[in-house]
Specification:
This protein has a domain at 198-502: Rossmann fold, CATH 3.40.50. Helices cover 33% and strands 11% of the residues. The protein is built from 17 helices and 15 strands. The strands form five sheets. It has a five-stranded parallel β-sheet with strand order 6-8-5-9-12. A hairpin with a 4-residue loop joins strand 10 and strand 11. It is elongated. Bound molecules: 3'-phosphate-adenosine-5'-phosphate sulfate. Its EC number is 2.8.2.-.
Length: 507
C-alpha cells in the first residue's frame, strides 16, 4: 500500500516543490503577521489597560507578576471599545496649523451651569512647534493625546495605522471623549507620595542656627503617614485650635506626585488664613466610600476668613477625582504642582528604590523594548508625567480658570514668586514672601524661616530632595522625545510654557 506521504518522489517533482515552497512561505508570513499584531497590541496599553504599581500584598499584582514592583493590568469592555474606536496618528503630521480648536464645555458647567460664565476656552500655543508643526489655537482631545502616546513610540507608526485624528472642535462640540479608560485610577498606593513636614535639617557651618522654639513652623508629626495608615484616627494638625469649625476644603493640591506638593503646602501653612490637614487624606481616590462627613472630620478647624486645604497628589491621575470633587463643591480651587516629567519620573523611581532596593534599574523599567526604543508608558512613573492626558480629564469638570499650575522648578528657584501666584489665586493677602524663605546650602533647597526671628529655619525631611541615581543620557534623550509632544500639548492647554525642553541637564 502506498504511504499517505508521497515523500521524496513528490518533493522531487517540480510543480509540487513550488507548492511546498509557497505553503512554507505563507506559514512564515502568517507567523510574521501574528507576531506584528501581538507586538502592536502590546504597545497599545494606554488604550486598553491601566497598569499600576501596587504595594506588596495589595491587589492582584502578584497574580500577574510581570514586574517585581507588582504591575497589574485591568481591562474592561469600555477600554476595548475605546480601543476599537480609537484612531491613531503619526505625531502631529496631520495637524492643520490653521485650525481653530475650542475646548469642550466642562461637564460640571454643562450640568450645573454655574461655574463661571466664560465661553469655552481656546488657547494660543505658547511654544510654537511640536516637531515643527503644532501651532495656533487648538485644544487637544484625549483621542489625540492617546494617538500621540502611540506615535511617540516609534514602532507604532506604521502606514496602515496612520489615520488623522485631529478633529476641529467648535465651541458647540460635544465634550471630549472621556479619559476614564486611561487615567490611573488606582495609582500605586504604598509607594505613593511621601508626606513629611518641615524638619530642622543640618545646616552648613555658616548656616548653623539654634534650635527652633517649640511651636515655630510647627511640624505635624502625623504628616509622615497617609490617612490609610492611620485608619480612622483623629488627624487634626497639632496646632489646630479648638475653636472654629471643620469645613470641607475650598482648595486642594491635587498633584502631581513628586512635583513639590509638600513644599507648597507647608509654605501655604505659614499663611494665617490657611489651615491645612498635614496628612494626605486620599479621600477622592481611596477613601471615598467613607463619606464626606469622614472627610470633613479630618480637617482642621477654621474661623471666618480662613480657608481649609489638603493635598493628595494622586488625585491628579485618578479618573473619578474630578467628578467627585466637583460633586462636593463645583467651585473648589485646584492646584497642580508640575515638574519636568523626566525629573519627576526619576524622583518617583528614586522613592520606590529607597523602599525596594531590589527593583530593576530605571533604564530597564522605562522601556518595553530598549532596542526598538519603545518606551513603556504603562509604567506609572512615566505615565504620571503625561500631564496633558490627565488634565483633559479635569477639564471636563472644571474650567481652566479654577486650576492653578505651579512650576515645581520655580518653587525651588523662586519660592516667593510662586507663592505670590498661589496666594492671588486663592484670594489671600500676599503674606508669604521672600522673607519667609531661606536657601539651605546643605539641603540644596529653600527652607522656611520665621521673618522676625532669624534663629531658625525649617527644611523638608530627608525624603524630599533625595539624590537621584545617574540615568543613562541616551535614555534621557529618548524620554525627551517621548514627552515632547505631550509637554507641548500641556503648554497649549494651560497657556503656559514650563520650558522643560530647555532643561538640558537632568538632576
Ligand atoms: N523646599 C523644598 N525642599 C525639599 N524638596 C523640595 C522643595 N521644594 C520642592 N521640592 C521638591 O519636592 C519633591 C517632592 O515632591 P512632593 O512633595 O510632591 O512629593 S510627594 O509626592 O508628596 O511624595 C522633591 O523631589 P526630590 O528632589 O526628587 O526628592 C524636591 O525636589
Amino acid at each position: 500500500m502506498a504511504p499517505w506521504w508521497p515523500g521524496r518522489a513528490l518533493l522531487s517533482a517540480k510543480a509540487p516543490r513550488k507548492l511546498v515552497f509557497l505553503f512554507a512561505l505563507s506559514l512564515c508570513l502568517t507567523y510574521l503577521f501574528y507576531s506584528l499584531l501581538s507586538c502592536y497590541t502590546s504597545l497599545h496599553f494606554p488604550l486598553q489597560e491601566s497598569s499600576v504599581y501596587l504595594p506588596q500584598g495589595q491587589g492582584p499584582s502578584s497574580a500577574t507578576g510581570d514586574s517585581p514592583l507588582g504591575r497589574i493590568s485591568t481591562s474592561d469592555s469600555s477600554r476595548s471599545q475605546s480601543h476599537s474606536e480609537q484612531p491613531t496618528m503619526s505625531a502631529f503630521s496631520t495637524m492643520d496649523s490653521a485650525a481653530t480648536w475650542g475646548r469642550p464645555e466642562p461637564k460640571g458647567r454643562q450640568e450645573a451651569g454655574s461655574i463661571g460664565t466664560e465661553t469655552p476656552h481656546s488657547f494660543k500655543v505658547t511654544n510654537s512647534t511640536v516637531d515643527g508643526i503644532l501651532s495656533t489655537q487648538m485644544t487637544l482631545p484625549s483621542a489625540s493625546i492617546r494617538a500621540v502616546l502611540s506615535s511617540t513610540n516609534p514602532v507604532m507608526v506604521s502606514a496602515a495605522d496612520i489615520t488623522p485624528v485631529i478633529k476641529v472642535w467648535s465651541a458647540s462640540s460635544p465634550a471630549a471623549p472621556s479619559a476614564d479608560h486611561v487615567a490611573a485610577s488606582s495609582v500605586d498606593s504604598s509607594v505613593d507620595s511621601e508626606e513629611e513636614g518641615w524638619d530642622q535639617s543640618p545646616l552648613a557651618a555658616t548656616e548653623l542656627i539654634p534650635e527652633l522654639p517649640t511651636g515655630f513652623l510647627e511640624t505635624d508629626r502625623q504628616e509622615s503617614n497617609t490617612i490609610d495608615h492611620r485608619s480612622n484616627l483623629q488627624l487634626n494638625v497639632s496646632s489646630t485650635p479648638e475653636y472654629g469649625e471643620k469645613n470641607l476644603p475650598q482648595a486642594i493640591i491635587i498633584g502631581v506626585k513628586k512635583g513639590g506638593t509638600r513644599a507648597l503646602l507647608e509654605a501655604l501653612r505659614v499663611h494665617p488664613d490657611v489651615r491645612a490637614v498635614g496628612i494626605e487624606p486620599h479621600f477622592f481616590d481611596r477613601n471615598y466610600e467613607k463619606g464626606l462627613e469622614w472627610y470633613r472630620e479630618l480637617m482642621p478647624r477654621t474661623v471666618d476668613g480662613q480657608i481649609t486645604m489638603e493635598k493628595t497628589p494622586s488625585y491628579f491621575v485618578t479618573t473619578d477625582a474630578p467628578k467627585r470633587i466637583h460633586s462636593m463643591a463645583k467651585d473648589t480651587k485646584l492646584i497642580v504642582v508640575v515638574r519636568n516629567p523626566i525629573t519627576r519620573a526619576i524622583s518617583d523611581y528614586t522613592q520606590t528604590l529607597s523602599k525596594k532596593p531590589e527593583i530593576p534599574t530605571f533604564e530597564v523599567l522605562a522601556f518595553k523594548n530598549r532596542t526598538l526604543g519603545l518606551i513603556d508608558a504603562s509604567w506609572s512613573a512615566l505615565r504620571i508625567g503625561i500631564y496633558a492626558l490627565h488634565l483633559e480629564n479635569w477639564l471636563e469638570y472644571f474650567p481652566l480658570s479654577q486650576i492653578l499650575f505651579v512650576s515645581g522648578e520655580r518653587l525651588i528657584s523662586d519660592p516667593a514668586g510662586e507663592m505670590t501666584k498661589v496666594q492671588d489665586f486663592l484670594g489671600l493677602k500676599r503674606i508669604v514672601a521672600d522673607k519667609h524663605f531661606y536657601f539651605n546650602k546643605t539641603k540644596g533647597f529653600p527652607c522656611l524661616k520665621k521673618p522676625e526671628d532669624s534663629t531658625g529655619v525649617r527644611c523638608l525631611g530627608k525624603s524630599k530632595g533625595r539624590t537621584h541615581p545617574k540615568i543613562d543620557p541616551d535614555v534621557i534623550q529618548r524620554l525627551r522625545k517621548f514627552y515632547r509632544p505631550f509637554n507641548m500639548m500641556f503648554y497649549q492647554m494651560t497657556g503656559e510654557d514650563f520650558q522643560w525642553e530647555q532643561d538640558e541637564q537632568e538632576k
